[in-house]
Amino acid sequence: MQVQSMFFKQRASEKLGDELLQGNMRKAKGKFVDGRAKAVAEFGVWEEVRSHAAKVRDRALANLDAYLLEFEANATRRGAVVHWAETAEEACAIIVGIARANGVRKAAKSKSMVSEEVNLNEALEAAGVEVIETDLGEYILQLAHEPPSHIVAPAVHKSKEQVAELFVKAHGKPRLTEIPAMTREAREALRGHFLGADMGISGSNFVIAETGTTLTVTNEGNADMVTTLPRIHVVITGIEKVIGTLEDFATLIRLLPRSAIGQTVTNYLTLTTGLKMPDEADGPEQMHIVLVDAGRTKLVGGPMQEMLRCIRCGACMNHCPVYQNVGGHAYGWVYPGPMGSILTPVYVGLENAGDLPNAATFCHECAVACPVKIPLPELMRKLREQQFDRKLRPWPERLAIAAWAFAVKRPALYAFLSGIGARVAKWMGGREGLIHSLPGLDGWTKGRDMPAPAGRTFRELYRQRSLERR
Amino acid sequence: MKVGLFVTCLVDLSRPGIGFAALKLLEGAGCEVVVPETQTCCGQPGYNSGGREIAKALARKVLAEFRDCDYVVAPSGSCSGQMKVATVHDLFQGEPDLPEFEALAAKWYELSQFLVEVLKVDAVPGKFEGTVTYHDSCSGLRELGVKMQPRYLLQMAGAKIAEMEGAERCCGFGGTFSIKLGEISTRMCENKCESIRATGAGAIVGGDLGCLLNIEGRLRRTGDKETKVLHFAQVIAGEG
Q1: How far is the C-alpha of B153 from the C-alpha of B112, rounded, in Å?
Q2: Each residue of B192-202: pLDDT tens digit?
Q3: Tell me, what's the pLDDT at A129?
Q4: Which of B173, B184, B220 sits opposite A12 (nearest CB)?
Q5: ipTM score of the complex?
Q6: How many structural domains compose chain A?
Q7: Nearest Cβ partner of B169 from A321, A444, A463?
């Protein structure tokens, strides 16, 4: 995906003015936030399991090299071929190579954010392979030629009516109004693709070292089809998804669907270990697992390592008041919300991420919601520190901070300046005590008045009181 | 008991009445209150803008100013979070003066927590007739656990509390965020104002002046000249 994050502010502005989107986002917010809250309350031992899950992820990251090699050995033993892709381009080249070598004409995909990250669909299409997204949300977006706006519910920004419109165009059938009927129509359209695809491509929520298993959670069962029906199965996922054991998986899966949408368990859990065996009815003849780095190892052992704990549940964006108002597309790359404000700068460069590390009030809702205790606000702050040190913020902002820092360290100067400021601003506020526009602070005054100060500072009044009392 | 009052830069500049309300409450409860004259800011604007060294310099300045106090009290969850949490968990990790900041953090209280948990007040000077709605500001709530204390104090003053939908949701202030990303900040604030209007309360009360200026600014811009916007200290001190 082309990085558009430097335009966050403009894009957010457009999204704030998009009434349809605003309505769609409002509806989604309740479902995610209330659903999770209910599931967490029912769970009883949430904090305990959450602490354990963070440890499980930390252990995996501390043993990343060993677990990955163990995974490779076990997956290979079961007949899969493990490929290592250092970059996005390498990942695409590997998969295009597999497609070419096997004369693949059609690939059916279940949802994979890593494939969005590396632009896999474009690479395959350029090589003459037809790619069909089979996750319902992704399918809708493929028809709309849009990227996902959410990592779990990719089409959350679309209304039922917008989807009905897309289906009329794509399927050439009468317009439907009920969601079950629309789902049935999509299912019918997709069935042929599952059966006709030469290659199935899936992501993987976790890969398990001790068994060589890749696994996918879905609510639609499309991953079951994609991983068993086509003769070639390709898994594409990030190297940080490796965990040690099935036991570790048992911990994480208790948190993932609850955090994502308040579900106790997803409808389908697709675990794939190796090829179709001679005595088995289903399964692929070839299985390729592409483990993608694309910037991840840079985080290992560094100040941002905790971000690699992420299990891609989306709770951070669901609870983010910035995301709730602007939606995922405003963020301009694959991952939106707080996780995106961190992953975008670390994967595509801080200089390309624009305002993203600043797109937060540090309200800490994300940190509270994260099932693996990633200190998201702290990580965003570290990125702000890097922006500050590298002088990446606009010069008026840097000048303002420097001037402020100079004054607050000098109490006498500060007292003098704040005394003047309080008087001038009071005068500007007039009789109502409201300042309607302030040069340099129009970010505030465009949509809000600035309540004017009382006119004299606490410091002055307190000194006067002390003198009077003497 | 010698209590240092950390006034906060916003209260000093904009709403000195909140500082005097805090002073009245503390003195009324029998504290000997000192207000170091050289205090300016806790450093959070610098910290959140990536200026780590500025934040550390200011934290050290605050530490020196309040060194001989038994307690330090601030009428703000946000500044208290900076001095209780950010210093200890981040800024001075691995620094020789970490123990001093740990000691400062242990004796530092947000005002409502100090009144309820340390002074255990059972009466307040203020009398408030009518209904208020309370906005939980993010740092106080999620960093310090300020939730029931200000409500308890408001009820002590006779105020009825009508809870708004999403009282714990951010108002969109976020310090410099409110200027850097003003349009998003304004929308978040408008959502907050919608919740406030829906309660029909005559006053919106909070514990952080940043949030209050933000909310008041939006209410006034959208034509609401009636709803009072107050710090809880003003209400319970009878200065609202």
Answers
A1: 8
A2: 999 999 999 99
A3: 98
A4: B184
A5: 0.97
A6: 3
A7: A321
| DSSP-based three-state secondary structure for A79 | coil
**Chain A interface mutation, best of B32, B41, B141, B187, highest count of A Cβ atoms under 10 Å:** B187
The structure tokens 């006709």 sit at: A196
Are A253 and A118 contained in the same domain? yes
Q: Which CATH architecture has domain B131-237?
A: 3-Layer(aba) Sandwich (3.40)
- Express each pLDDT in A263-318 by its tens digit: 999 999 999 999 998 898 889 999 999 999 999 999 999 999 999 999 999 999 99
In terms of Cα–Cα distance, which of A372, A356, A123 is closest to A234? A123
Cβ atoms of residues B35 and A411 within 8 Å? no
pLDDT at A470: 80
**CA angle, residues B169, B58, B213, in degrees to nearest 5:** 35
Q: What is the DSSP letter of A432?
A: T
At A27 the pLDDT is 86
Nearest Cα residue in chain B from A438: B179
Residue A213 region by backbone torsions, left for phi larger than 0, else alpha for psi between -120 and 50, else beta = beta
CATH code where residue A85 lies: 3.40.50.10420
pLDDT greater than 80 at residue B240: no
In terms of residue numbers, what domain contains A240?
45-298
Res B189 pLDDT > 80: yes
Cα distance from A39 to chain B (closest Cα, Å)? 19
Residue A276 lies in a domain: yes
Rounded to a whole number of angstroms, the distance between the first and last alpha carbons of chain B is 27
Domain-ending residue, one of A356, A389, A422: A389
A331 with A433, same domain: the answer is no
Mutation target to probe the B interface, by most B beta carbons within 10 A, among A323, A361, A379 is A361
Residues 6+ apart with CB under 8 A from A14: A330
Residues A255 and A118 in one domain: yes
Kindly determine whether residue B217 and residue A411, on different chains, have CB atoms separated by under 8 Å.
no
* SS3 state of residue A54: helix
- Is residue A287 located within the same domain as residue A198? yes
Phi, psi of B163 (to 5 degrees): -70, 135
Q: A321, B11: Cβ pair inside 8 Å?
A: no
Does the beta-carbon distance from A325 to B191 stay under 8 Å?
yes
Spans of all domains in chain B:
2-118, 131-237
Q: Which residues in chain A have their CB less than 8 angstroms from residue B178's CB?
A: 443-444
Task: State the residue for tokens 């200000």.
Answer: B150
What is the interface size between A and B, counted as CB pairs within 8 Å? 188
Given CA atoms B200, B201, B202, B203 in this order, what sign does their dihedral have? Answer: negative
Give the residue from chain A lying closest to B139, CA to CA. Answer: A363
> Looking up tokens 């600014």, which residue turns up?
B217
DSSP track, A319-368: T-HHHHHH-GGGG-SSS-HHHHHHHHHHHH-GGGSTTGGGS-----HHHH
Angle at A60 between CA A54 and CA A62, to 5 degrees: 100
pLDDT reported for residue A281: 87
Å from A377 to nearest chain B CA? 10
Q: Say yes or no: A55 and A178 in one domain.
A: yes
The minimal CB distance from B189 to the residues A9, A448, A459 is found for: A448
- Same domain membership, residue A238 and residue A106: yes
Ranges of chain A with pLDDT below 50: none
CA distance A370 to A316: 6
In a domain, A140, yes or no: yes
Residue A11 is predicted with a pLDDT of 97
